[in-house]
């Protein structure tokens, strides 16, 4: 039996299509397919299918839906007999099917095979993989909240497969046979620049040089008229190579027999503007004598792969350009609050890795690896929130980055003025000559300041307000002194609200009474066991390495905790089992707490791996000693750790206007009263926002400071496509909005789920309910970030649609809406 979600949901038993019930029974089946092989609690099913406002009989209804599905999936099953496919698991249900019976899993398996296959086999594998798609992923659930993340992930994989297949075909010297299908794709996706480059190359290889140059001219005209942009350096270089009839492009085309439709799925708001850090890398080697081009090309390709690996380890999406040129994007498709700093560190690590290749004897006599890089921050336009990197419509930032690369010498990492301004205080820079073409300032990176942060924070400056909250922390700490087991307190608050600053104040005020260890969880994908390493380093700082070794190595029962922790610190992957590591970590904290009370500050737990959260649970439950476990997180944590809602919790609210004004005066000194009031109003009680608005006074013309864009975009990126589109449409309405106004801006297919998406946005603290059908953005900067993430063209369409709604549906209130209507 095969289950399909690459298109409308379907089930086939050999050649027979299984009739699936409609309505919520169909939704339940799709939900169980997405979690195949694992139990899904009945409570979660109810939340996913109805939301929080579910009927009192929802549990009984779910049982009825399960019975209907069982009859469809197993028509020959004896009445009342156990089901072999849809099993009851505790208080929930489990779709007990092998992973390969789901088309999405088979599709992912083919993509994995294609990555390591040679070009000919890769092209065939990817064509077969794309042939599995029958339409947009989960096409019958485009706007249902439970399907949002799965749709985004699957569509991203599909787009990546399309691009990779075209690239594989071109690497096989194919050209003319790709023209028709490339033109079909570009017709539906006119701003995908890399596909336009593929079309130019395919036309040239088909002997249609004039058409290839005309394709470039049309692209340049379209970009100039619609976006005000020039094509990027990669496309311009390709146009120049075609114009001069570069022999390397004169390849005889091979005719393919099978045609594969590459029509990309449509979306309500398919394009978006993003601020990204772009890194251009040249890893072309040099040789003392005239080298063999094949050998030199192989060495350069290896260096480019090494550089690409280093960039990707820091979270980049890397595109290979002509030769050994790379273009890496930080902040696309997912943003982080420190993308600019990641870009600089990644470039420095890539340079180190490339130069290390010279020590390899196989590099070739007289051949030296070289690398240089240019980095700048700016806006790009992409074809969709889940698009692949090839969907980027090149913005001016890419042209600037290319010029910075050309200005760099071997070994240089050269920055543009925007990224240098954004990271001032985090880097040691030396200004180099201005770029001759436009006078742009350029800076050479000499080093990264120790413990540099992507968003500078004044943690050592005086704290304003929060006396009541600090008293609560001190009271909980004193309670831990009286207890014989750990005491835990969860501090929740939005990014920048002052959670870390409050913990730092507690640590400073209790330094004479207790040892303090601070463990910070890294952002997504940066190492699940980094906090374990931090625990060892901080523990050694308290005792000294030798003393810590003597204490932990002297354990009588079982393997020494020191060995287990050291193993976790050096592992390339997960430890053998968490149950092996947990007792060792518990013992480490108990040893430290035996001598003096211990405060353990767990920061950024919203990024923690589930295993690490399990460790904190175990410490509170099983450890002994005077320990205060201070857990700090954003509200996102409770989305996937719902049981922590029952913990003793301190919610950090925005600062009062008076406290925030005092903070601004302390940070800025003398400042105009109007400017001070503007900062206080715009930051709305968030001290980090106030600090960054203050720092951006002389540098920024944008309403959202560059230092905060990544932080805000990161929150938007974690929304499903339906939730994101609702939030964007809401941003057009204004800070305060009504349910009907948002509905007026959405397509008909989205209407049944608007209330559910609004509830989800409220749970994620992006909007708040202020009446029966009225909402308000939680922060003006969130609204601005959502608004600025849309293209100007989409904004114009939505503004016009909103005006039409005001004119026709609010005619009795026209005087009130006259300004908005205009």
Kindly report how far apart the N and C termini lie.
Answer: 58 Å
- The rounded Rg comes to 29 Å
**Approximate helicity band:** 40-55%
Strand content: 5-15%
Mean pLDDT comes to 80
Give an account of the 3D structure.
Mean pLDDT is 80; it is low at 251-266, 385-389 and 571-576. The protein has 32 helices and 23 strands. The strands form 6 sheets. Strands 9-10-7-12-13-15-14 form a 7-stranded mixed β-sheet, sandwiched between helices. Strands 17-18-19-16-20 form a 5-stranded parallel β-sheet, sandwiched between helices. The protein has a 3-stranded antiparallel β-sheet with strand order 1-2-3, with no helix packed on it. The chain has 822 residues and is α+β, with helices and mostly antiparallel strands. The N and C termini lie far apart (58 Å). The protein is globular, with a radius of gyration of 29 Å.
Give a quick summary of the entry.
The chain is of the alpha+beta class and about 800 residues long.
Labels describing this entry:
single chain, 822 residues, alpha+beta, 7-stranded mixed sheet, 5-stranded parallel sheet, 32 helices, globular
């Amino acid at each position: 039996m095969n289950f399909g979600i690459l298109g409308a949901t379907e089930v086939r038993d050999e050649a027979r299509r299984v009739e699936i019930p409609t309505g919520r029974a169909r939704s339940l089946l799709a939900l169980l397919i997405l979690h195949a092989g694992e139990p899904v609690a009945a409570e979660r099913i109810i939340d996913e299918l109805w939301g929080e406002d579910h009927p009192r009989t929802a549990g009984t209804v779910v049982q009825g839906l399960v019975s209907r599905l069982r009859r469809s999936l197993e028509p020959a099953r004896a009445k009342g007999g156990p089901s072999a496919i849809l099993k009851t698991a505790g208080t929930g249900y489990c779709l007990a099917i092998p992973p390969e019976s789901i088309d999405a899993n088979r599709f992912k398996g083919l993509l994995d095979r294609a990555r390591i296959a040679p070009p000919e086999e890769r092209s065939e594998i990817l064509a077969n993989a794309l042939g599995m798609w029958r339409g947009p992923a989960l096409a019958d659930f485009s706007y249902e909240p439970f399907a949002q993340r799965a749709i985004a992930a699957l569509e991203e994989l599909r787009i990546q497969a399309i691009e990779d297949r075209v690239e594989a075909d071109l690497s096989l010297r194919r050209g003319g046979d790709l023209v028709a299908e490339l033109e079909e794709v570009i017709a539906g996706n006119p701003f995908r620049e890399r596909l336009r480059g593929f079309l130019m190359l395919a036309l040239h290889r088909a002997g249609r040089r004039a058409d290839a140059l005309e394709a470039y001219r049309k692209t340049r005209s379209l970009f100039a008229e619609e976006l005000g942009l020039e094509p990027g350096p990669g496309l311009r270089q390709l146009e120049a190579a075609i114009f001069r009839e570069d022999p390397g492009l004169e390849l005889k085309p091979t005719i393919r027999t099978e045609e594969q439709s590459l029509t990309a799925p449509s979306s309500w708001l398919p394009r978006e503007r993003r601020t990204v850090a772009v890194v251009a890398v040249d890893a072309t080697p040099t040789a003392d004598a005239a080298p063999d081009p094949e050998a030199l090309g192989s060495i350069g390709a290896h260096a480019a792969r090494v550089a690409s690996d280093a960039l990707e380890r820091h979270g980049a999406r890397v595109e290979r350009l002509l030769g050994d040129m790379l273009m890496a994007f930080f902040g696309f498709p997912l943003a982080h609050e420190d993308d600019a700093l990641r870009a600089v560190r990644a470039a420095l690590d890539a340079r180190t890795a490339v130069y290390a290749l010279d020590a390899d004897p196989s590099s070739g006599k007289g051949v030296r690896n070289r690398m240089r890089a240019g980095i700048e921050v700016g806006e790009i336009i992409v074809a969709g929130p889940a698009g692949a990197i090839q969907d980027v419509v090149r913005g001016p930032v890419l042209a600037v980055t290319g010029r910075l690369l050309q200005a760099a010498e071997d070994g240089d990492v050269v920055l543009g003025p925007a990224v240098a301004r954004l990271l001032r205080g985090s880097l040691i820079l030396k200004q180099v000559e201005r770029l001759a073409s436009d006078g742009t300032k350029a800076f050479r990176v000499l080093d990264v300041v120790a413990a540099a942060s992507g968003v500078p924070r004044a943690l050592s400056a005086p704290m304003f307000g929060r006396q009541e909250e600090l008293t609560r922390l001190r009271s909980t700490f004193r309670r831990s002194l009286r207890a014989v087991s750990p005491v835990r307190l969860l501090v929740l608050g939005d990014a920048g609200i002052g959670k870390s600053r409050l913990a730092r104040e507690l640590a400073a005020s209790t330094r004479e009474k207790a040892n303090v260890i601070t463990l910070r969880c890294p952002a997504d994908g940066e190492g699940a066991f980094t906090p374990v390493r931090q625990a060892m380093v901080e523990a050694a700082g308290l005792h000294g390495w030798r003393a810590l070794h003597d204490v932990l190595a002297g354990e009588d029962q079982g393997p020494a905790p020191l060995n287990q922790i050291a193993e976790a610190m050096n592992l390339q992957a997960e430890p053998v089992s968490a149950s092996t590591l947990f007792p060792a970590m518990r013992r480490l904290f108990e040893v430290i707490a035996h001598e003096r009370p211990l405060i353990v500050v767990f920061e950024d737990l919203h990024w923690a791996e589930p295993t690490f959260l399990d460790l904190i649970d175990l410490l509170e439950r099983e450890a002994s000693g005077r320990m205060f476990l201070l857990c700090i997180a954003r509200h996102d944590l409770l989305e996937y750790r719902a049981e922590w809602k029952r913990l003793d919790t301190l919610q950090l609210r925005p600062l009062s206007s008076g406290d925030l004004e005092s903070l601004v005066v302390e940070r800025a000194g003398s400042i105009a009263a109007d400017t001070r009031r503007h900062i206080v109003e715009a930051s709305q009680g968030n001290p980090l926002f106030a600090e960054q608005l203050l720092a951006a006074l002389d540098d920024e013309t944008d309403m959202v400071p560059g230092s905060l864009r990544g932080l805000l975009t990161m929150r938007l990126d974690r929304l499903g496509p339906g939730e994101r589109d609702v939030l964007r449409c809401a941003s057009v309405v204004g800070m305060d909005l009504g349910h009907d106004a948002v509905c007026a801006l959405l397509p008909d297919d989205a209407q049944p789920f608007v209330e559910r998406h609004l509830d989800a946005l409220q749970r994620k603290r992006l909007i708040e309910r202020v009446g029966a059908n009225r909402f308000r953005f939680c922060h003006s900067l969130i609204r601005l970030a959502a608004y600025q993430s849309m293209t100007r063209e989409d904004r114009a369409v939505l503004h016009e649609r909103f005006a039409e709604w005001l004119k026709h549906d609010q005619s009795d209130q026209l005087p009130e809406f006259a300004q908005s209507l205009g």
